[in-house]
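Q: For a teaching handout, I want to show students what a protein-ligand complex looks like in token form. Below are the inputs, and the small molecule is iron/sulfur cluster. Please produce the holo structure.
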Amino acid sequence: MGNKLHIVSLGCTKNLVDTEVMMGKLQNFTLTDNQEEADVIIVNTCGFIDAAKQESINTVLNLHDSRKEDSVLVMAGCLSERYKEELSKDMPEVDIFTGVGDYDKIDELLVEKKSRFSEAVYLIDGAERVVTGSTYHAYIKLSEGCNQTCSFCAIPSFKGKLNSRTLDSIAKEVEGLVAKGYWDFSFVSQDSSSFLRDQNVKDGLSLLIQRIELIEGVKSARILYLYPSTTTISLLKNIAKSEIFHNYFDMPIQHINDDMLKLMKRGFGKKQTLELLEFMRALPNSFVRTSFIVGHPQESQEMFDEMCEFAANFGFDRINVFAYSDEETTPAHEMNEKIPAKVINKRAEILGKIASKCMEKSLKNELGKEVKIVIDGESEEHEYLLSAKELIWAPEIDGEIYVNDRTSDEELAFGKIYRAKITDILGNILTATVENA
Ligand code: SF4
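A: Here is the structure, written as tokens, with iron/sulfur cluster included.
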């Protein structure tokens, strides 16, 4: 077997970490963007909702169509795990199937050329990974699996129960990455605010903040995927007190109508949601991101209107909108009064427009402000424009800034923090002048 590797990571940032673990195990390979010359092709799939599942299958089949004869095609990850029986029968194009339990054994699977689905869900603990996409930022996984029982979600069925890493394991990984020059970290999991609750520790994230703050070289951090019923005001206060962790609040609430939240088995109501969100919003320089699902079974027009009005007026910085996906094995799948696809798509379009307006308003609020930014590299737009993001923003999902000017002659470096003035807005991209380092 030659040593050219083409690897594709689909789905969420948690999946990306697992892909990076596989790359860490295959460092004897040379990475290639050209699947036609690859000896090994790996697709780390996503199995969350219909659209993601379709994308995963199409990606695997397209790569199969263009791969060279004696190459090896591996289908890994959530979709492969969730439908292991069906896929091994229906997709003869794939040479090796593996799920969510063997990322750190990928090298063995390639030698054996055999599919493998280990029982236990893999949880990174000390594996050397190849961090992708940045020279200064890395995602850090807090846990695997989830103990919540949201009506629409199949993730616990293939990722299992909440299994948190230890603080030592996380701190050791961060220290190792700092030693390699990384200084900005996004902590992710399915349900971050439940971190360590499977080890009977109630305030796991507050302990994490204290521990990470002790690591010299960590300059910036944020936590994604807070779950309302396990997010407390004392946690929010600890985030606000931190010099390192930004007032960055990513809390998918999925809906705001009390009856729908009950139907969704979210374990909290409108009142508690508002208390948490208003506390977040009131914190200085806070950034509030959320997600909504439209078209869940039994969602009435009134419930939808209530959600739209709330989304439009609360003052979110960013909103993700998901169209309900009827996932077998979930409680919602068994519910009656399903919403027709045409209505679901219409509702997603309406709420999508509201989400764009919220982002536009949030970006306009930045105009004239002096903020901390980090430059990622040359923009794809124009060689004279540098691509940056606000330091508080998470990579790739919160927006881009074009740096088109600077007040000093100093050459601007990539992956470095600068103070900059936000000067203009082009569509939903801000422009900025770097003031000084
Ligand atoms: S918190 Fe809910 S939506 Fe998220 S992974 Fe767990 S069950 Fe799924």
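A: Two things your students might notice: The radius of gyration is 22 Å. The first strand starts at residue 4 and ends at 9.
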